[in-house]
Amino acid sequence: MKIPSIKVFGREIFKPRTPRTRSPDENLPPLRSGRISQPPTIKYLSPYRSRQTALLKTLRSTYDAVDAIELLTEETGDLSQALYNFVRLANVGHEMKIFALDKTTRLPDIELEWRDFASRVNAMSNAGLDGLIDQFHYLAFVRGAMTCEVEVAQTLDDIVEVYPVNPQTITWQLEERNGRQVWIPYQVPTNFISRTTLTNGMVSLEEANFFWVPTDPKVDDPRGRLLLKPALASIDFQIQILNDVQAVLHNQGFPRYDVSIDMEKLMTAIPPDARSDTKKLREWLKDHIQWVKDQFESLNPDDSFIHLSDTTVDLGNGAANQGRGIDVRAVMEMVDVQIENSVKTPGTMMQRVNSNTETWATVQFRVFVSGLQNIQRGSKRLIESICKLWLRVHGYQAIPVFEHNTIDYTSELQRSQIKQAKAVFLQLAQNMGWISGNEAANELFGHDAVGEPRQTQPPQQGGGDNQNNGDQSSNN
Fold first, then answer.
1. What's the pLDDT at 5?
2. Cα(242)–Cα(235) distance, integer angstroms
3. By C-alpha distance, which of 448, 420, 416 is closest to 435?
4. DSSP 106
């Protein structure tokens, strides 16, 4: 049916657009074989891993934000837990559907070939496409972008490997292409020291099979946003508070023995030659106090107190702070809120026990899942781009559709109740003649009905043996 144009007072205000037909291979760049991005220059990897003994000092001396974030994800529990939640929940399974050009007919034979390719890709980790998606999501959360290069075989008939590329090795330059200003990616080699010269030692990825999906990019900035960057200040403050609390606990948090020395009794034991010599008197008192201190510090847990009469030991709370001090719990709760906000994770998933209701916790988790779905859309685009290139090198004209599995946050009981309510609704729709039995069966079970429905009494609300359908009470 041809849509006519619309004219008002002789002026054409609407003109139908002629549908544009395009073959799948139209305007595609030529295939390029080999790998252009630079592999790591490290040739040996030791099985030994070092640990940080002065984390706060190391954090404050790390000036690159990405390096600081990666340090904290490996050394602190909060960021490690947040990253673990991100990566695990963002990849709960997936399905690749490959359709013919009519966008409705699935091609199972090609899907089987894709699954074989997906099982051998990402050979370094031996985790297949699942592990590759985890690496993409890690790059999105920690480094601000998902990026990779696809290496095509020299014969241009297969894909050799898909290499994730560190976004921090990519430098962008605004250059002119076909009369337009576009950002061109260049890779900085890992041993490239001077970042002032933008042409020396850099590799252009413009001609590579290079795919880049930034995380929440700013306007006119293709680099992407560091989602965990606000956590740097929060974790810095948390570590400082924990160090201060540790010092306070060591000094005032535990009961200690209060040992006092009677000065009058001690004066009677002073040697005669030290009574008139101030220097000797000071040295003698100092040595005696140190001797008493050494004796008490060398006691074993099961030793008894044996001391001279000039020494008194208070076995009560001793020097413990009995006055009013800082409420450490209130301070830590304030820090916890800052950390939860900075890592975009609800407190329930950060092992913070609070008084939230189940409904409010569910709302928080749904907001968290919405953020994960935004990242999943980026990895979806990346995997579909890889699959399009894979289809092209194999000579297939098809449309790939990659779908992540739904992140399920309902219990088994809730799922059963939802399915039961859906079955009751479909039964009503079939009885009303809105849908057929096969449509109801496919909606609920994924296949046609296997028999005719039985005539059953529909469930009634309420209960009891009251036979009066018109009145709720026989007294009315």
1. 58
2. 10
3. 448
4. B
Span 275-334, pLDDT tens digits: 888 888 888 888 888 888 888 888 887 777 777 777 887 765 544 455 555 677 888 888
Q: Is the pTM of this model over 0.85?
A: no
Query: Which CA distances in Å does 274 have to 261, 278, 310?
Result: 19, 7, 19
For 8-44, how does the pLDDT look when each residue is reduced to its tens digit (9 = 90+)? Answer: 555 555 555 555 544 455 566 777 788 888 777 777 8
Taking the mean position of all CA atoms in its chain, how far away is CA 369?
Answer: 11
Which range, 19-23, 192-196, 347-351, 440-444, has the best average confidence (pLDDT)?
Answer: 440-444
pLDDT tens digits along 139-196 = 999 999 999 999 999 988 899 999 999 999 999 999 998 889 999 999 886 554 444 4
- Domain spans, the chain: 24-228+360-404, 255-319, 412-445
* Ordered alpha helix ranges (H), 122-276: 128-138, 231-248, 263-268, 272-275
Contact yes or no for 423/444 (Cβ under 8 A): yes
The residues, ordered by sequence, that sit 6+ positions from 304 with a Cβ below 8 Å of its Cβ are: none
Residues in contact with 15: Cβ distance below 8 Å, sequence separation at least 6, in sequence order: 5
Closest CA to 159 of 216, 118, 200, 198: 118
CA distances from 249 to 53, 245, 336 (A): 20, 6, 20
Please give the Cα distance from 140 to 136 (Å, whole number): 6
Question: Cα torsion at 414, 419, 421, 423 (round to 10°)?
Answer: -170
Closest of 320, 294, 295, 322 to residue 307, by C-alpha: 295
